[in-house]
Specification:
Blueprint (H helix, E strand, L loop, with lengths): L23 E6 L2 E6 L2 H18 L4 E3 L4 E2 L6 E2 L3 E4 L16 E7 L5 H14 L4 E6 L4 E8 L5 E8 L3 E6 L2 E6 L11
Parallel strand pairs: 7-8
Antiparallel strand pairs: 1-2, 3-6, 4-5, 6-7, 8-9, 9-10, 11-12
């Protein structure tokens, strides 16, 4: 992978020096700062998936969870639920990875994030050329894998994987397999 560091202005710059409350996820969509509490379903899916990914990466890349990533727009600042960083990727002068360093992004849907995850993030991640975008939906008990990003903000390929089946992430030269049997479905935690 070639290393490219853009170091362009970041949507996150507006939050420089601001003390943010703990326990809230902060993202910037269309220039608006959005703070939402982490949901229990989201957290349990992340706790289940992250160690599986980290073990299989085995030092060939990195995994991030709720970490700021710089995108090529000052209107969007996302901190994906899970992101897989390509081997050899470097941080910019702010100490963050940029969109082109990501091999895959995984977002876990909550009731409050449905529009962002299924529409706005889908569109931006495709435009940015993120090769694999996965939306995990505990309400429907399904993972949707999007591949083949287009510059028009769409993905060419979509596959639905029900909870209980293996979720395979096709990365550059390797696959990561995530067992989804432990993912909670809406209602499981009631």
């Amino acid at each position: 992978m070639s290393v490219m560091v853009m170091d362009a202005p970041s949507a996150w710059d507006v939050l420089h020096g601001v003390n943010l409350p703990r326990g809230y996820r902060v993202e910037i969509t269309e220039g608006k700062i959005i703070m939402t509490p982490q949901g229990e379903y989201q957290w349990n899916v992340i706790l289940e998936a992250a160690p599986q990914i980290k073990q299989q990466l085995a030092g060939h890349g990195a995994i991030l969870s709720d970490v700021m990533v710089d995108f090529p727009s000052s209107q969007y600042g996302y901190a994906p639920d899970l992101a897989i960083v390509a081997p050899g990727a470097e941080r910019n002068s702010r100490g963050r990875f940029e969109w082109h360093s990501l091999e895959a992004v995984i977002e876990v849907v909550s009731r409050s994030s449905r529009d962002n995850d299924f529409a706005k993030k889908f569109h931006l991640y495709a435009e940015c050329g993120i090769p694999v975008y996965v939306v995990i939906d505990p309400e429907d008990g399904v993972c949707t894998v999007h591949r083949g990003p287009t510059r028009t903000g769409s993905y060419e390929d979509e596959a639905k994987i029900p909870f209980g089946q293996d979720l395979v992430l096709p990365l550059q030269g390797r696959d990561i397999t995530i067992a989804t049997g432990g993912f909670p479905k809406a209602g499981d935690l009631d």
